[in-house]
């Protein structure tokens, strides 16, 4: 009984932390077991084409949370094609399974935000660019170091 009260207090603190981090973008529908909606919008509000892109994700934990991961739903989506919706949900489901048995609401919200914003950020270096480097051990320390071609340095600028 005492461990149940401690667990409930820990979950309540976790819900409070999510609210503190996400403010108005997080709506708590129920504190215990936690049920919340998280609004995701690109951080690039000044880019006209991305002003109307958003997603609302529902996280609903059962009475066995955190022993069992919460149920995760895409409640609403604007401007995200079906492929990106699937990628977002697949990524977050994988993360929930990975964190099973741990308090995970904050981590799931962070993962959702990172994955969602990743759709709108152009990578500076491609995987092909990285393959231009080679590993070599130095005579002094025998630790491998990555040597890059001068072209790679210009590509990243």
From TrEMBL:
CDD domains with a match to the protein in the record: RWD_RNF25
Alphabetized GO MF terms: ubiquitin protein ligase activity
CC terms in the record's Gene Ontology section: nucleus
Sequence ranges assigned to domain RWD in this UniProt record: 13-119
GO biological process, one term: protein ubiquitination
Entries under PROSITE patterns matching the protein: RWD
SMART domains in alphabetical order: RWD (SM00591)
InterPro entries membership: RNF25, RWD_dom, UBQ-conjugating_enzyme/RWD
Protein name as it appears in the record: RWD domain-containing protein
Species annotation: Castanea mollissima (Chinese chestnut)
């Amino acid at each position: 009984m005492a461990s149940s009260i401690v667990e409930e207090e820990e979950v309540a603190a976790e819900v409070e932390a999510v609210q503190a981090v996400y403010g108005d973008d997080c709506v708590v529908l129920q504190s215990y077991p936690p049920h919340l909606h998280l609004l995701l919008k690109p951080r690039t509000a000044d880019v006209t084409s991305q002003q109307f892109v958003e997603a609302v994700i529902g996280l609903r934990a059962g009475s066995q949370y955190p022993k069992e991961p919460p149920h995760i739903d895409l409640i609403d989506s604007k401007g995200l094609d079906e492929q990106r919706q699937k990628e977002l949900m697949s990524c977050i489901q994988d993360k929930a399974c990975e964190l099973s048995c741990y308090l995970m609401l904050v981590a799931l919200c962070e993962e959702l935000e990172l994955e969602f914003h990743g759709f709108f950020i152009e990578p500076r270096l491609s995987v092909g660019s990285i393959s231009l480097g080679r590993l070599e051990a130095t005579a002094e320390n025998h630790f491998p170091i990555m040597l890059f071609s001068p072209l790679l340095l210009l590509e990243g600028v």
